[in-house]
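ok so for the tutorial part 2 we go from a plain amino acid sequence to predicted structure tokens. step 1 is just haveing the sequence, like this:
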Amino acid sequence: MEMGNKLKSRSDFSTEREYMSYTKTSDFLLNYSWKGKSKETIINEMALPDFEQVYLDEAIEYLTNQNDFSGMSLDRFILKRLDEDEEADEFNPNDIIFIEREE
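step 2 — the prediction. this is what the tokens look like for a chain of 103 residues:
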């Protein structure tokens, strides 16, 4: 396989779900550049779900300042922020449902 792999597009897949899975592969993320692209284009090309789009502005601003336009960096930044926000949620023991088991 020659260098400069051409990224696959939605038309290379039979379902949107297959395309979304592809956009999370290292093959896609390492070769994807979002430099000079609009937020809408990035969302479309990276097939970002709503819960990831929440962090897109922050990711774009941070990574532009780092001069880093790779899909991998954008994905990692968003996942890191998702993880941080998830940890910030307080653990609530009342959310646990106890199941009585017979001894």
